[in-house]
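#structure-requests
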Amino acid sequence: MNQNDKNVKFSDIKGEYILIDCTAAYCGHCIQAADELVEINESYSDSLTIVSFSQDPKKEVWLKSLERDKVAWNSIWDGNGRYSETSIKYGIQGIPTFVLINPEGIIIDKWTCYSKGSINNRLEKKIVQK
């Protein structure tokens, strides 16, 4: 379910590239990454769709973190945290974890942790902006 109470499947999300952001409200590195994700959402709007996947077990905590982090893109929560089917499918072992999927649906990059500028640096190497 996303922040607008709509059921969302990753397979329904379309975009030239998709960046999955596995995050949680209590994660310090996830909070630090939020500002960069806001910038990326604007600067890559023609070529990239961001989807955050929350590892938070409590819905209220997740929703409050979306306000704090100014999340304007789809954020998905299933209430199962690190035991969710999505976490298992993508092999999420720590947060934040980022998964970059190309237009053909192939994972072309995956990394864990965050430092200032690290997301932009990875995207610049993988995505040619229009």
